């Protein structure tokens, strides 16, 4: 299948992904005893190609007072001398969130089978003004121009102001908290799983996390605990003051761009020094009931890893698409050319009996004419909700009677101000006949440049599908 999951038990947020001596390493929060939340431990899997995975023994287990109630997510930092630093959040015996240091017992081991915890843990504790359960998820560290390492992590002030704290360190054992914050956004609540990394504005290459200088912007991403949605913004980072400013305050973290419009949370990137790319992971928390999860013996999974770059055509967003290794899974192909789709029609395509496939589809429509209307400025009530120019797209995992299906579609429309907008949407309302599965319509606005056709890529598996638009703006 597409995506990574453990064959049993409860699988959650990705932690500390890295590339080391020919192997991609994926660590993840994991309950080894049941398919429900609890006993949070770090599982460990490795891959040569990001699509075929081998599961290894547990990497970190809750066995000290500072993490006895859970080894939560964290991040890896690879130092210039090749040493690997792993910082992670632990929940103490008194339910306080603290930051801890771990490192490989033998960094020359390509599989990194054994990990040691620093005897002086914890290395960071909640500072004054931060509640004991609002202090988690340290990022990969970056090296500043003064030779000092920096990292950030999520928290909140009062009850509603989401913040990212900044710490300095020279040895990863002793830390200094800055007086200010990297950034704060009122009304967004607790930030968790913060990610912070540079992007090249020419959009051609990915950058190491410590990259600074001209031609570089920085992405700040936060997972909002209140809504369980991942948001990001692009802006400017000042390494002297350790402040980050969004390019567009109206699309700040938590109020603007989403990393993904589907069931996707707690995402994390890492710089793949092997292929000079930035790779993004996200967690899919399925909507099966707890009873169903216990019956099947596992719950949730990771998305297909994606490559991330700055979109230098729009200058406002990121481009995401599945890593190139996914194409190695293709066995055969079928092409349909010049398929005419009349308004209101459904055109069946014979693809055999496969339940796992990779679809690339391009739609060409008549030129759109801007005009003022009262159309709903979003995905509407699903694929049955018509706009002036749509919706149009694909019906996947559909039965012959079309009573069970999942539409993935574009919805161009005339907004109330007369402008043209396009939404890329998924309608789950008929995706399953099961009554105990949560189903919704979701999606978001995507930029369509002049003279561009509408392109989508859809990866379908037995458990889930992921779709991307326009080659790709968002997933």
Automatic annotation (TrEMBL):
Q: Which residues form the Glycosyl hydrolase family 32 C-terminal domain?
A: 325-460
Q: Where are the transmembrane segments?
A: none
Provide the coiled-coil residue spans: none
Boundaries of each Glycosyl hydrolase family 32 N-terminal domain copy?
Answer: 16-322
* SUPFAM superfamilies in the cross-refs: Arabinanase/levansucrase/invertase, Concanavalin A-like lectins/glucanases
Q: Which domain of life is it from?
A: Eukaryota
What is this protein's name?
Answer: Beta-fructofuranosidase
